């Protein structure tokens, strides 16, 4: 029995990752959420472990706040897989696995104005340093693995790359016009989709600038927070997100840093051409199936919008092919093989 441990809501990328792994191996797996902060409460988790009412106390005194849950999981799990690197290390089971999604807190070039953000980053860095002492580490990309080896001088034999998979909830739907009517989207515009949080590394200021360069035949559709005069969707499930992908003409994803980049591959599966950043992680994930541009060059991105529409059939075909690599069947086989090696 593999027990997946998370602190994240399934609405986040890391929470989605935990849920997807659990669903991939169920019923030979279980998933447990530890509630450090009530804002991450999620009805998907049937019996979460709750700590103190204070988030700060939960992090400082984790071993006491969650003692019953820690003891129960340590004694009943064959393998414990920590899926949230933002969770304080608390377990001592011999067969431990941790997924390191990224090392962004170590490489931020962004000046924070809030002391709490600086404090949070300091804690996150301390957790990752502890997790890097584990013998069984998974990264979601070679990009992250190489960063860890380079920056922390970690033995590469401890690190295995197993990508997330993209669920079959994402697939092509043929009638774009009907979808736009259903979603209340304009039928006579070229729709550019942006999917992300509003974290600075998502580069939403550049998305806004690109839209301002385009004429009024283009319209921005956002899944997340509003950008400019975007048509905005929030709190939507996979079924609705799949429809939005299918209703749009381009995914614009000029990110500055990712651990993986779910929207890129989700777009591939739905047949939506992708214009993204020419950074190492996106090059790896897309493997030639996306058009890439300098995420800080507004002219290059704007020209990319025009160019990808002219070559959309090429990128649709390449995207479908690349998405096969991230199929549930492929990742399940890799994951099961990996767990068999843990001693």
UniProtKB/TrEMBL annotation:
<dbReference type="InterPro" id="IPR001296">
    <property type="entry name" value="Glyco_trans_1"/>
</dbReference>
<dbReference type="GO" id="GO:0016757">
    <property type="term" value="F:glycosyltransferase activity"/>
</dbReference>
<dbReference type="Pfam" id="PF00534">
    <property type="entry name" value="Glycos_transf_1"/>
</dbReference>
<dbReference type="Pfam" id="PF13439">
    <property type="entry name" value="Glyco_transf_4"/>
</dbReference>
<dbReference type="InterPro" id="IPR028098">
    <property type="entry name" value="Glyco_trans_4-like_N"/>
</dbReference>
<feature type="domain" description="Glycosyl transferase family 1">
    <location>
        <begin position="175"/>
        <end position="314"/>
    </location>
</feature>
<feature type="domain" description="Glycosyltransferase subfamily 4-like N-terminal">
    <location>
        <begin position="76"/>
        <end position="164"/>
    </location>
</feature>
<protein>
    <submittedName>
        <fullName>Glycosyltransferase family 4 protein</fullName>
    </submittedName>
</protein>
<keyword id="KW-0808">Transferase</keyword>
